[in-house]
Amino acid sequence: xxxxxxxxxxxxxxxxxxxxxxxxxxxxxxxxxxxxxxxxxxxxxxxxxxxxxxxxxxxxxxxx
Length: 64
Fold this sequence. Notes:
Blueprint: E1 7-9, E2 14-17, E3 32-40, E4 46-50
Antiparallel strand pairs: 1-3, 2-3, 3-4
């Protein structure tokens, strides 16, 4: 990576799914990490950023 300071944000989101076992793939709606990609406009380096840590996810309403 070139350490450039100019990035663009990819349009859309990425859902990474955590797996219990690397030998098999389980597809479900659980254990997801919603993320966005930032792409260096000079070299194309892609960095991934988790939306939850950035407080960019909607808060789930707690049932009373």
